[in-house]
Amino acid sequence: MSVLVYNVSGLVKEPVGSTREYDVDDDVPVDQGDRHLTGRARMLRTDGGVLVSVQLGGIERAQCNRCAREVETPLHLEFDEEFFSSVDPHTGAALPPPEDAEAFRIDAQQVLDLDEAVRQWWTATIPMQQLCRQDCKGLCPRCGKDLNEGPCACGPELDERWAALAELSNKLEGK
Questions:
Q1: What is d(CA 63, CA 78) in angstroms, rounded to the nearest whole number?
Q2: pTM score of the predicted model
Q3: Which residues in the chain belong to E strands, given as ranges?
Q4: pLDDT digit string (tens) for 13-43?
């Protein structure tokens, strides 16, 4: 169950420019499991619904892309999304959908659910390559030893396409 669900029935009946602020300090479902997020969500009444300004922070846990060690990456989300009313707050009559078919909506019960917006922004914020450290040497592709702990016994691998050049280099060096 989400903690990022807000009943905005009072806010959408107020004049444009009215605001609400909410603290967030809870586990939020994001992709493959929950993440503990902290921060704030500020809601501003607009002509067509509610503009939500979010500032959240949390930790993304994953494996290093090179050595498979556990990595904790701090993430900080800052975004603004407008949620459009699906019904008139005073009459309950259905409103036409916004021009953007993928725009976020406030449901007929005047509930604004931030889950999907947070999930999308969180996913977009995760680094494409998560590393335990910038100079991570990774694993040996032949024996699997963690090269951050020292060299393996495999020795350097020579691509046979470069064998002739290596032989010439050895001759020039007098080996």
A1: 25
A2: 0.78
A3: 5-7, 19-29, 34-45, 49-63, 70-85, 104-106, 111-113
A4: 999 999 999 999 988 888 777 889 999 999 9
